[in-house]
Amino acid sequence: MTESVLKVQGLCRHFNDGDRLVDVLKNVDLHVARAETVAIIGSSGSGKSTLLHCLGLLDRPNAGEIFIQGVAVSSLGETARSELRNKNLGFVYQFHHLLGEFDALDNVAMPLIVRGLSLAVARAQAEPLLQAMGLESRASHFPGQLSGGERQRVALARALVTKPICVLADEPTGNLDRETAQQVFELIANVRDQFGTALVLVTHDLALASKADRQLTMVDGHLAPLSADQVPNDSTQQTHLGR
Hints:
This protein is an alpha/beta fold.
């Protein structure tokens, strides 16, 4: 098996609900290889977003271990966790979370500016990502001047500008129509091939999930492969992201 860029072993996460302990993640195992696309589906409240937050080092599990590029996360302090997250992970959400007072180019450049790069250098590194998304002509437009699909493509470019090993996406096409969602997924395929970036995708959309290299389902806190009869098998499979 190809070496994992992101690996999870025995992950558990619970929350207190008054006097009751609620187990959200139950002994979850996961590995994601370089340039692999993994889709995770499941009903609301099944633990998908909690898992993604743990993978993104935005939440701490109660038990288990997360490895990023072979580094065990549990032993790291907050500064080291932040540095590891900033260096290796990118994030895309259902709602783009772009900064309305900045144009598309500066929104993409923002993670590099936060790292301490000069504005000129950050913009120079952001421009090729906008071009890859077909948005070079929209670089000076503000989020309010962009369509929903364009905003999400800017968000994807922003997630990639730091050259992460893995992008974590929480319902990235959930606010888009079918045609635009398809376009965003095709861009994700191109990004994977061009940059070798892995993708962990949480989605309710089985048709889109079917285009990933692997499909997993989260049920009652457990993660398992999606059965073959649950994966759509129609003409959309012709654009499968797997190579």
